[in-house]
Specification:
By secondary structure, the chain is of the alpha/beta class. The protein folds into two domains: 3-53, Spermidine Synthase, Chain: A, domain 2 (Roll); 58-274, Rossmann fold (3-Layer(aba) Sandwich). The protein has nine helices and twelve strands. The chain has helices at 58-70, 88-93, 109-118, 120-123, 138-144, 169-178, 196-209, 257-262, 268-274; strands spanning 3-10, 13-27, 32-38, 42-47, 50-54, 78-83, 101-106, 131-135, 149-155, 179-188, 212-219, 227-234. Helix 5 (138-144) crosses helix 6. The protein starts with a strand and ends with a helix.
Length: 275
């Protein structure tokens, strides 16, 4: 079979994967959801024809958006995840024994149901007793929960459509208010090759609100350019001062004490974005 999915990243760039089977399709009030089986990356979740995650490389993204921040905090107990309906971030957060409750706020129930049916290795934490799943607008939830969470994870889609409001200074101010006095947040902030202006703006916004802003990197093959950024805003604790020897041993495939530190080593062209 010579059937291909093509993601049109911009007018000059596409990403293509050969598909062996279409497993799921639906159109919700928010977006089109597809799960396909690809030859190269296995099962893949698509939202509005944009790759969200695959069973082959999801561990990189989900480990880095969670463990870097959680291991920066001395005793995280309550964690909020905005978006992330596939459940991968929930699965990783639950690896931390100190976490008493992780709340997932996803606007589209269809994403959760598709992931539970077709991506069980990713969504397996959603039924854990410590996990709370709320179908709601994450922006609204943050506004309504002041001084509640030790860590907030913004596991969003690209800054278009339902997720557009998750990339603005007003939202980051609400995130600041929703965190406890020593809390921090981490957000995925796109590609340093293709979203340079966006990353510079986000770092500037976070610096204007939080005492400290940090950018760190990971390599996710199915995301445009492969190299991906995450932005952290923290009220007290510096992730670059974490003692690697104090990071607990966890079942991870990408994140490690060494990666925790080296992920903050930025190539010169990325450093330019955070000046």
């Amino acid at each position: 079979m010579n059937l291909w999915f093509t993601e049109y990243q911009n007018q000059n760039l596409t990403i293509g994967c050969r598909i062996s089977k279409t497993l799921h399709y639906e159109k919700t009030p928010f977006q089109e959801i597809m799960v396909v089986d690809t030859v190269q990356f296995g099962r893949m979740l698509l939202l509005d024809d944009v790759i969200q995650t695959t069973v082959a490389d999801e561990f990189v993204y989900h480990e880095m958006i969670t463990h870097v921040g959680l291991n920066t905090l001395p005793d995280p107990r309550r964690v909020l995840i905005i978006g992330g309906g596939d459940g991968g971030s929930v699965r990783e957060v639950l690896k931390h024994r100190s976490v008493e409750k992780v709340t997932l706020v996803e606007i589209d129930r269809g994403v959760i149901e598709a992931a539970k049916k077709h991506l069980p290795e990713i969504s397996c934490g959603l039924d854990d007793p410590r996990a709370e799943v709320i179908i709601d607008d994450g922006i609204k939830h943050v506004k309504e929960h002041k001084n509640t969470y030790d860590m907030i994870i913004v596991d969003s889609t690209d800054p278009v459509g339902p997720a557009e409001g998750l990339f603005g200074a007003g939202f980051y101010r609400d995130v600041y208010d929703a965190l406890t006095e020593t809390g921090l947040f981490v957000a995925q902030t796109e590609s340093p090759f293709f979203n340079r202006d966006l990353i510079s703006r986000i770092i500037g916004d976070v610096r204007s609100i939080f005492p400290m802003a940090r950018l760190f990197l990971a390599n996710v093959p199915t995301y445009p350019g492969g190299l991906w950024t995450f932005t952290m805003g923290t009220k007290r604790y510096d992730p670059m001062e974490v003692d690697p020897g104090g990071i607990p041993v966890m079942d991870t495939r990408y994140y490690s004490p060494e990666i925790h530190r080296t992920s903050f080593v930025l190539p010169p062209f990325v450093k330019e974005l955070v000046k």
